Amino acid sequence: MKVLICGAGSVGRSIASDLISHGHEVLLLDNQPAAMRVAQVPEAEWMLADACELAALREANVQDMDVVVAATGDDKANLVISFLAKTEFAVPRTVARVNNPRNEWMYDAQWGVDVAVSTPRIMTAMVEEAVAVGDLVKVFSFHQSGASIVEVTLPKTSPVVGALTREIPWPSEIVLSCIVRGDRAIAPSPQDTLEAGDELLFIVSADADPQALDAVLSSEPGTR
Asked: In this structure, is residue 127 part of a structural domain?
């Protein structure tokens, strides 16, 4: 996979290092000479240019990229980069960094954003996930489809503890996608039995009612 990362700061370099370690090709682009810390990610390609300019994006061959990541510290720039990548170069996937949570409402399909990543929102979800057992926690939202990833840690009192996944009446348009048990990530099969303390990850469609899932997992459906 070919990935263009706009913004070569600590966030962009960290993303680049992870992607390269997974075998992907990465081009880091930034308009600040001080950001050209090539030695920190020597396996990446580097380019000094302004990603908000069409000429720079053409020079970077954005049309050949599978993903464009707008990871600058400027929300306006990230929106412009996503918009140009999607509308001018038809990039299949755009991921944009949200620096100020107040601007998150703008990060949608109209601005060419497929996935918006807000560090404060993710941190909030992780705090909730750490302290809430039995409560549904929204971890991530897909702006393009409106679907979301929801996590719940299964309490001992849940009626589904000890049940096979195939026996549980999961609500429509809500899919169990992963069971995290200790340090293991398990792809659910019909024969898997749920245990107390399991972290369950669900994909919830935009039209689904998360409360229906709460009713299935809760020891007292409808009381929360």
From this structure: no
Domain count along the chain: 2
CA distance 122 to 97: 12
Structure confidence at residue 155 as a pLDDT band (50, 70, 90): confident
Average pLDDT, the chain: 86
pLDDT bin (cut points 50, 70, 90) of residue 143 is low
Q: Give the pairing type, strands 199-204 and 45-48.
A: unpaired
CB 96, CB 78: distance < 8 Å:
yes
Could you tell me if 41 and 143 lie in one domain?
no
Structural domain including 151 reads: 132-217
Whether residue 100 sits in one domain with residue 8: yes
CATH of the domain at 193: 3.30.70.1450
Q: Is 176:135 a contact under the CB 8 Å cutoff?
A: no
Distance, CA of 150 to CA of 172 (rounded, Å): 15
Residues 111 and 161 in one domain: no
Task: Characterize the bridge pairing of strands 199-204 and 174-181.
Answer: antiparallel
Mean pLDDT of 204-208: 89
Quick check: 70 pLDDT over 90? yes
pLDDT score of 129 more than 70: no
Residues 114 and 178 in one domain: no
